[in-house]
Amino acid sequence: MVASSATIVKNKGEIMCHSEKIAEHEILENRKIAENYYLMTLKCAHLKKAQPGQFYMLSPEKSHHFLSRPISLFSQKANGDLQFYYFTKGSGTFELSHMKPGEKMIAQGPLGNSFIKHKSPLLLVGGGVGLAPFYELIESRRETMSFELLAGARTSTGLEILKEFKAISPDIEQSIYEATDDGSVGMKGFVTELLVQRLAVKHFGAVFVCGPTPMMKAVAKICRDRGIQCFVSLEEAMACGVGACVGCSIETPTGMKRVCKEGPIFDATEVFYE
């Protein structure tokens, strides 16, 4: 998810957006995980509990950009603090990466739908920064959900975040399979190759996938050919994040749907890939 132009107005210490209250939160940490990859923690006590797969609209309190950034929730801690894993690929996320502890972020959310509770075991497929929503999914449901996580990236840099996943529980590591394009970590090749391997040896209730569109398209086809239900978490340019502008609409067999409102998670059969 990359952009939003929701109007933000300050009024007697409150932040208003499309008549919805959003909040300023202090940055506790903005840690560099690897080159161009960051994990930001916001102090957010007393917020509504977010669900795995939802996202927030984020903007620095004093920003040089009009557009805020929709970023998937990485984690919501027991005390309410929020974490966001992001990759710097433009001036907006570059600005985020230079934010310091003690500075303020404006956050609106949680927004969008979430990963449904589906029959286990689940196969989670994440590419690069697309691994982000799976942390909260695993952490919040690990007692009731069995899963395998297939993690892919171009190089080992993109998989450094897996150290956070493995720290959730001692037995998590045995459920993670890694692939890199250059072979620097795990299997050399695409994560879709891992997917084919795992589907050949084990039955899964469903596949959840998040990452670059070509990767998600390939995963959806592999699942469709094998009769396995697949859910994709889409990344789409947005203009409001709350369904008002319809700028993030996509075509589906049942008509146009807004990624920010009806999504970002869809059954793969609903999505048209060109």
Distinctive features:
2 domains; 5 helices; 9-stranded antiparallel sheet; 7-stranded mixed sheet; Elongation Factor Tu (Ef-tu), domain 3; alpha/beta
Task: Look at the structure and give the CATH class of the largest domain.
Answer: Alpha Beta
**CATH fold naming of the largest domain:** Rossmann fold
Please state the overall shape, judged from the principal axes of the Cα atoms. Answer: globular
The number of E-state strands comes to 18
CATH architecture of the largest domain: 3-Layer(aba) Sandwich
Helical coverage, percent range:
10-25%
CATH H-level homologous superfamily name of the largest domain: Nucleotide-binding domain of ferredoxin-NADP reductase (FNR) module
Low-confidence stretches: 1-21
Structural class assignment: alpha/beta
The first-to-last residue Cα distance is 19 Å
